[in-house]
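To illustrate the input format used throughout this study, we show a single complete record. The first block contains the structure-token representation of the backbone; no residue identities are included at this stage. The design step must infer an amino acid for every position from geometry alone.
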């Protein structure tokens, strides 16, 4: 042993004395360097790799064995992956002796050198071998090590729960294993890039294996894991955002041509791991975005539209796609549970990220922008429904016009920001194109978005700049790439220059036809916007229906490729009347549409609130939503009977899981009603409460929207925030 290595061992022993008590036993644990006692000399199995970036893999764990009289063996016996603050995942064959004393195992975290005075060393509390291990030589090769105290240095890695094969994906293996068969150990952590291959490709390497595995390596060899790397991680993704897909298990030698490394497939064992470890997990549900900027309160409104209580899960992911907190929430039957995201671990001011919910719940995120540090005054509020992952091209419109008619506001910027989240477990390319109102291409930029990461892109206020409208087109390089994206328009009408109105648009697929809520309420101006996303000229019949169902507008328009049609609906609706627009297109999947509402101060023309409602499809089935009567909000429920026959509807209101009202009514064909759910006496609602809405059409089809309207001391709207019943 070199003098340098001897010196390091002396230092490491001093550090270990801080965590190992005098009760340490002295018997050896057989390990991979003692071939006479190893599982097999061809097992345990970095060759052809490179030195890892220091401290880039904070989940990487060195499993260190104490020998006789507490002496440290020559380097880690195995690697492992930190999967929670107190648990490490590794290979079962690292511990062939079933009577292992955990006092003889030390876990090293935050290491770059295999034995370094810089790092964290924690004694093992217990070791759990999978009960299936030992049936044959290589099956169920997985084990858990519980730490005697939580790690303060390591950062747990997210385990893959998709069960994908990842064939063709480049994965990364790492460890302090030997540099070639029977070769020397490196001082520093090394990693190697290995393509995942199908199990059929390495079929001969899987002879006798009776549990799921992943194979990785090269036909010609040259790169592989090797002795000492056992139990270490096989990951995909970058250093910031890695996902554990496998555990280094075995191979025929190291980096030999025609032989591949075999890795225990982690996703298969999540239920077994979950018996011991409370770890954050992926959930197969919908997504939303959280935003810690602008002093906004983010509230996740989780809804359960079924007749049974459910336990849902909500995950908070940072901008790099890492799950930073995971909570399980009971949502009563036919009810809603609100979670203030600002209070959850991982939510940070002036940061942003993603929210993920389990598939047994639905709902939305509402954002409330406080004017001050109290709930006495608000600049704006808006809600965005949780959405399933998108794929293919999606669209939204941008608008940088200042809608205020007050000359003093005319110079105020109207920022439009587009958020795009890559939901895949590897980096993907996305192209964002902008078209002006006439359909001419303004720009086309391609962005590389890392695995599970989010980027925010200016969406028109810089290019083309002020006083412009146009189309945003988001296209992933692969049509199978999963993502979500949305655009938020902000603006102000205040002398202080602060942002005091905002509304969102979720990028969506085009439609052939749809319904848009219209009307003229308060001192508002209402516009219908129709955008042709195709490269063809289309014809579009547009009809406006009044409150009583009368047809008050009927025109056919021609819309050029990628261009827009804006109609001022306020010219057709008397004040305080509401209704809807019905549009259709000569081409399938060709239009996106929305109705825009601009609420103004009648004394000076400045904007007090802004709202947008994207087009909806009529439903003949039950649809669900929510109402909210906190913050002295009014809660109008707007219902359109979009069919040409009378429709009988059942309306059910629930509060905290208890039904508070059931109502039945009949609507004339094509008519609209607005129910004020803040009429406490009639609807049995309460101030400072929220609940769920269930609307059941008995015949015909309906579209419905629930609004939240809060007024200031001057009785002008501070915000008007709609959300669609679905």
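Output of the design step:
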């Amino acid at each position: 042993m070199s003098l340098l290595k001897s010196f390091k061992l002396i230092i490491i022993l001093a550090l270990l004395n801080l965590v190992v008590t005098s009760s340490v036993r002295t018997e050896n644990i057989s390990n991979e360097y003692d071939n006479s006692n190893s599982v097999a000399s061809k097992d345990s199995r970095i060759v052809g790799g490179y030195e890892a970036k220091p401290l880039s893999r904070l989940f990487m764990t060195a499993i260190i064995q104490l020998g006789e009289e507490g002496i440290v063996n020559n380097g880690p016996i195995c690697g492992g992956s930190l999967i929670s603050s107190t648990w490490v995942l590794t290979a079962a064959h690292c511990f062939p002796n079933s009577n292992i004393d955990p006092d003889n195992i030390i876990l090293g975290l935050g290491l770059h050198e295999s034995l370094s005075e810089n790092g964290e060393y924690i004694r093992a509390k217990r070791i759990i071998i999978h009960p299936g291990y030992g049936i044959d030589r290589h099956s169920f090769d997985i084990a858990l090590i519980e730490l005697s105290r939580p790690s303060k240095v390591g950062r747990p890695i997210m385990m893959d729960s998709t069960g994908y094969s990842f064939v063709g994906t480049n994965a990364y293996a790492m460890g302090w294993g030997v540099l070639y068969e029977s070769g020397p150990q490196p001082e520093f952590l090394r990693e190697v890039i290995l393509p995942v291959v199908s199990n059929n490709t390495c079929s001969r390497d899987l002879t006798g294996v009776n549990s799921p595995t992943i194979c990785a390596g090269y036909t010609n060899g040259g790169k592989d894991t090797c002795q000492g790397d056992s139990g270490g991680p096989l990951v995909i993704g970058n250093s910031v955002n890695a996902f554990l897909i496998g555990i280094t298990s075995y191979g025929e030698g190291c980096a030999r041509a025609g032989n591949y490394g075999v890795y225990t497939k982690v996703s298969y064992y999540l239920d077994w791991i979950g018996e011991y470890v409370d770890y954050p997990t992926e959930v197969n549900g919908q997504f939303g975005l959280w935003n810690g900027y602008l002093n906004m309160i983010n509230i996740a409104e989780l809804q359960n539209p079924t007749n049974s209580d459910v336990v849902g899960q909500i995950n908070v992911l940072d901008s790099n796609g890492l799950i930073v907190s995971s909570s399980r929430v009971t949502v009563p039957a036919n009810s809603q549970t609100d979670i203030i995201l600002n209070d959850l671990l991982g939510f940070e001011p002036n940061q942003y990220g993603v929210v993920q919910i389990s598939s047994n719940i639905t709902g939305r995120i509402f954002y409330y922008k406080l004017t001050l540090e109290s709930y006495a005054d608000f600049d704006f509020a808006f809600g965005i429904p949780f959405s399933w992952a998108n794929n293919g091209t999606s669209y939204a419109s941008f608008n940088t016009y200042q809608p205020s008619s007050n000359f003093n506001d005319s110079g105020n910027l109207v920022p439009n920001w587009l958020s795009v989240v890559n939901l895949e477990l590897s980096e993907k390319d996305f192209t964002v194109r902008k078209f002006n109102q006439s359909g001419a291409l303004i720009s086309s930029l391609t962005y590389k978005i890392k695995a599970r990461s989010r980027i925010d892109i200016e969406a028109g206020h810089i290019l083309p700049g002020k006083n412009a409208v146009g189309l945003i087109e988001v296209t992933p390089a692969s049509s199978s790439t999963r993502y979500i994206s949305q655009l938020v328009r902000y603006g102000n009408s205040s002398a202080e220059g602060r942002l005091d109105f905002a509304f969102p648009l979720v990028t969506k697929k085009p439609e052939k036809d749809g319904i848009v809520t219209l009307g003229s309420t308060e001192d508002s101006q209402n516009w219908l916007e129709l955008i042709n996303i195709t490269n063809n000229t289309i014809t579009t019949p547009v009809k406006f229906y009044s409150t009583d169902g009368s047809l008050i507008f009927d025109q056919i328009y021609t819309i050029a490729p990628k261009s827009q049609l804006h109609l001022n609906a306020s010219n057709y609706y008397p004040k305080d009347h509401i209704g809807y627009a019905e549009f259709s297109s000569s081409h399938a999947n060709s239009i996106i549409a929305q109705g825009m509402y601009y609420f103004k101060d009648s004394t000076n023309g400045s904007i007090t609130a802004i709202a947008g409602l994207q087009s909806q499809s009529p439903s003949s089935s039950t649809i669900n939503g929510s109402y909210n009567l906190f913050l002295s909000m009014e809660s109008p429920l707007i219902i359109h009977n979009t069919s040409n026959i009378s429709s009988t509807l059942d309306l059910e209101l629930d509060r905290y899981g208890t039904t508070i009202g059931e109502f039945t009514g009949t609507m004339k064909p094509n008519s609209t009603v607005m129910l004020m759910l803040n009429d406490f006496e009639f609807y049995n609602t309460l101030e400072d409460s929220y609940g769920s809405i269930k609307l059941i059409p008995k015949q015909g089809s309906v579209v419905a929207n629930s609004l939240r309207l809060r007024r200031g001391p001057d009785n002008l709207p501070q915000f008007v925030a709609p959300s669609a019943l679905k």
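Structural context for interpreting the output: The domain at 158-274 is CATH 2.40.10.10 (Thrombin, subunit H). The CA atoms of residues 17 and 74 lie 17 Å apart.
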